[in-house]
Design goal:
The chain is α/β, with parallel strands linked by helices. Helix content is 32%, strand content 24%. The chain folds into three domains: 6-86, Udp-n-acetylmuramoylalanyl-d-glutamate--2,6- Diaminopimelate Ligase, Chain: A, domain 1 (3-Layer(aba) Sandwich); 103-316, Mur-like, catalytic domain (UDP-N-acetylmuramoyl-L-alanine:D-glutamate ligase, 3-Layer(aba) Sandwich), CATH 3.40.1190; 325-468, Protein-Tyrosine Phosphatase, Chain A, CATH 3.90.190. The chain has 17 helices and 23 strands. The longest helix has 16 residues, at 287-302. It is globular.
Length: 475
């Protein structure tokens, strides 16, 4: 039987007023699609939907109780067990802070312009070799995802890994103060969300907010290869950090890659980890993934874990859905490979995905299906046009482009690479489906708002999945 995570006494101590029969909950959820029996359902009012509209569905799915706002309680009095509070989201934050206060887990936090999710997942794998590890689900890294992840941490966890993201300055600081990490990792600084900042220096400062929550004597893990290393270092020095561990290929890096050999499905890395040599396999393709593995070993070293044992876990790394997942599909005349990078996109991650496409062993053609990158502000048109060199270097044989900003790339491409262009991913879908042939490797990438993921779904519907394939990843 699953041990209780939150009891009636816990909820009442935090100010919840219980209506109906509630004794304990074994989990916390905000989504009736994934809720489990025994969960507390938190009815958060979002921009598009109000969780209070789903309270009855949550109870029908055997939620232990629903946390609802005082003003909604009357209309839901017959729904089932309720925990009535002034503000459900604020109450979930209080659950999260309480969970953090009572856990004995060693806590890590990860941010960065790119690589957050991949690094978080790699840390989950590596730390699980040493003990029970709790980590953020998917990209639950915002104002509700972080407290939700905290509220879910089992009492017996040995490690907790929290991904923290932002679109604007000031968003990371309150979240890292809630998480209070012992180790804080910044993967890299790139012009992502630059449309919300005056310059990339503002992005560096916003990411460096993660150090504000460090526990006294904690460790800041920083990318030594990044041009903004010194700026991040200054922020770390002004925090509670007692130590900084740098990673990268720079000769002064504390965790330094000595050799990286990339392959179509994985990479081999030889690294110096604080004076000790580690040789290991990263089970996800791409040089960027190999470099991110250095951040993982730096974080493990910060916790005093053996680097070679930690590195062993990286062989199991695979790509999450939408971040490099490889899907082998059945064409009537043979199989072809789809590489799903459709979760999101920015100039750095786009270049990384294109570089990985170059390493794919394809019997047929390499095809890139690219949609607009968002939140780039006035640099948007140039950022898209400037991808042309990376596309050529990717060894792509054919390019399909969607969106008004991708028109800049389309116009900059050599004529021999042009497959089709459309104003939207939806309009491009038919051309892509008609173009694929057996042996092709088709990489699909764009920002989430473009809905380029629907092209991935359309490929699956028309051709059907063959067998599990090796995966490549990008966080």
């Amino acid at each position: 039987m699953t041990a209780p995570l939150w009891t009636r006494e816990d909820v009442e101590t935090l100010g919840g007023r219980i209506v109906g029969s509630f004794d304990a909950a074994t989990g916390v959820s905000i989504d009736t699609r994934t809720i489990q029996p025994g969960d507390l359902f938190v009815a958060i009012a979002g921009e598009a939907r109000d969780g209070h509209d789903f309270v009855r569905a949550a109870i029908e799915r055997h939620a232990a109780a629903a946390i609802v706002a005082e003003g909604k309680a009357g209309s839901l009095s017959d729904a089932g067990p309720l925990v009535v509070v002034p503000d459900p989201l604020d109450f979930m934050r209080r659950l999260g802070c309480t969970a953090r206060a009572r856990t004995a887990a060693r806590v890590l936090a990860v941010t960065g312009s790119v690589g957050k999710t991949g690094t978080k997942e790699a840390l989950r794998l590596v730390l699980s070799r040493f003990g029970e590890t709790h980590a953020s689900v998917a990209s639950y890294n915002n104002h509700w995802g972080v407290p939700l992840t905290l509220a879910r941490i089992p009492k017996d966890s040995r490690f907790g890994v929290f991904e923290i993201g932002m679109n604007h300055a000031g968003e990371i600081a309150p979240l890292t103060r809630m998480v209070r990490p012992e180790v804080a990792v910044v993967t890299t600084i790139e012009p992502v969300h630059i449309g919300h900042f005056r310059s990339i220096l503002g992005i560096a400062d916003a990411k460096a907010e993660i150090f504000e929550g460090l526990e006294p004597g904690g460790v800041a893990v920083i990318n030594r290869d990044n041009p903004y290393f010194d700026r991040l270092l200054a922020h770390a020095a002004a925090s509670n950090a007692g130590r900084v561990i740098s990673f990268g290929e720079h000769e002064a890096a504390d965790v330094r890659a000595l050799r990286i050999a990339t392959g179509p499905d994985a990479s081999m890395v030889e690294a110096n980890v604080l004076g000790r040599t580690a040789v290991y396999r990263v089970g996800a393709a791409g040089r960027h993934m190999a470099l991110n593995s250095l951040a993982v070993l730096a974080a493990a070293a910060a916790l005093g874990l053996d680097p070679n044992e930690a590195a062993g876990g990286l062989a199991e790394l695979s790509a999450p859905v939408g971040r490099g997942e490889r899907i082998r599909l059945r064409h009537p005349d043979g199989e072809f490979l789809a590489i799903d990078e459709s979760f999101n996109a920015n100039p750095a991650s786009m270049r990384a995905a294109l570089a990985t496409l170059a390493t794919v062993e394809a019997r047929g053609r390499r095809i890139a299906v690219l949609a607009d990158m968002g939140e780039l502000g006035e640099m948007g048109p140039k950022a898209h046009a400037d991808l042309a060199e990376a596309v050529v270097a990717s060894k792509a044989d054919l390019v399909f482009a969607a969106g008004p900003l991708m028109r800049g790339l389309w116009d900059a491409l050599p004529a021999r690479l042009r497959g089709a262009y459309a104003q939207s991913a939806a309009e491009l879908e038919g051309a892509v489906l008609d173009a694929v042939r057996p042996g092709d490797a088709v990489m699909i990438k764009g920002s989430k708002f473009t809905q380029v993921s629907k092209i991935v779904a359309a490929l699956k519907r028309r051709f059907g999945q063959a067998q599990a394939a090796a995966t490549t990843g990008r966080g």
